[in-house]
Amino acid sequence: MEKMLHLTPAHASSIPDGFLLPADHLRPATAAAAVSLPVIDMSRGRDEVRRTILDAGKEHGFFQVVNHGVPEQVLRDMEAVCHEFFQLPAADKAEFYSEDKSKPNRLFSGTNYETLGERYWRDCLRLVYPLPSGDTKDWPHKPQRLREVVGNYTALARGLAMEILRLLCEGMGLRPDYLEGDISGGRVALDINSYPPCPDPSRTLGLPPHCDRDLITILLPGAVPGLEVAYRGDWIRVQPVPNSFVVNFGLQLEVVTNGMLKSVEHRAATNSAAARISVATFIVPADDCVVGPAEEFVGEGNPPRYRTLRVGDFKRMHNVVNLGSKLNQITNLKANQKQEI
Ligand code: OGA
Ligand code: NI
């Protein structure tokens, strides 16, 4: 029997019930929409790049980078092959479709927060790139060039993430290799997001407000806008800059830096005119890695603000918060996780 694919209706003329979200998730971007995320030219001098990345990171927890060293052709090939994957006939995608959250590589619809009974206007191909092997044999075999193109892209995006982590460490006065090893070496996870055109973008979202929970995220935003970043009680709409990446910090980086770098909430809006594809590359710590505030950031007058936890345990707590509560409580994990002093 053919597997049922519960994917987002791509040609719907109205929004099915499950997708309609409560108003507090939908508060539109207003005043700060005029503010834009800093765009950092990585081809400038190292001192300047280090400083601007750290300033932008402290102010927004988010920034864009251009002249980052990943060739334009790699970005175009990546966008094209991701698009081709979502265009495949249902029968070809069915083999990869799964609602089992424990499966590392799978196609699904919505988010990991599905237990709340809300649906979101996105489909996602989640792929795990194991380290150090980079073995992609469990990835889809269609389109034929997918494994090669996505594998190549992932290695380069990870290299860029590691370079940004080094610059941040230098800027913050940590050893440049402080974030190498297990904390960035668990694996790379890739969420290839497809947001079909939506008949009423004011009533649903592609992704709800959330913080990324790993170390750092490199997002290929695509040419169609959609990403919105929390800023001073409002949302900044991120305008895609050609050949740029959007970079943001995960919860583990907030913990290591004892809150100097924040993992900032963001969401994906939909639009009625065009399909959008984005690719989030997450640098994931090993489950056995123990993460807590770096000694360098703790001292007199500066107590640890987060508990030190094994990443695997942190994730279990994160999942429990997900299961048991309303969406906006997920991010309160940071508050829950803060050390009682
Ligand atoms: C994500 C994410 C934003 C986007 O995948 O975690 O925040 O613009 N994506 O697709
Ligand atoms: Ni995210």
Helix residue percentage: 25-40%
**SSE order:** HEHEHHEEHHEEEEEEHEEEEHHH
The small-molecule ligands in this entry are:
N-oxalylglycine, nickel (II) ion
Largest sheet: 8 strands, mixed
What is the molecular shape?
globular
Radius of gyration: 19 Å
**In what range is the share of β-strand residues?**
15-25%
Q: What structural class do the secondary elements suggest?
A: alpha+beta
Characterise this structure.
The chain has helices at residues 23-26, 46-60, 72-87, 90-94, 146-172, 182-185, 251-256, 311-324, 327-330, 333-337, and strands spanning 39-41, 62-66, 106-109, 123-130, 187-195, 207-210, 216-220, 227-231, 234-237, 245-249, 266-268, 276-284, 290-291, 309-310. The protein is α+β, with helices and mostly antiparallel strands and 341 residues long. The chain has an eight-stranded mixed β-sheet with strand order 1-2-10-7-12-5-4-3. Strands 6-11-8-9 form a four-stranded antiparallel β-sheet. The protein is globular. Bound molecules: N-oxalylglycine and nickel (II) ion (NI).
In terms of topology, how is this protein built?
Elements: H1 23-26, E1 39-41, H2 46-60, E2 62-66, H3 72-87, H4 90-94, E3 106-109, E4 123-130, H5 146-172, H6 182-185, E5 187-195, E6 207-210, E7 216-220, E8 227-231, E9 234-237, E10 245-249, H7 251-256, E11 266-268, E12 276-284, E13 290-291, E14 309-310, H8 311-324, H9 327-330, H10 333-337
Parallel strand pairs: 1-2
Antiparallel strand pairs: 2-10, 3-4, 4-5, 5-12, 6-11, 7-10, 7-12, 8-9, 8-11, 13-14
Helix pairs in contact: 2-5, 3-5
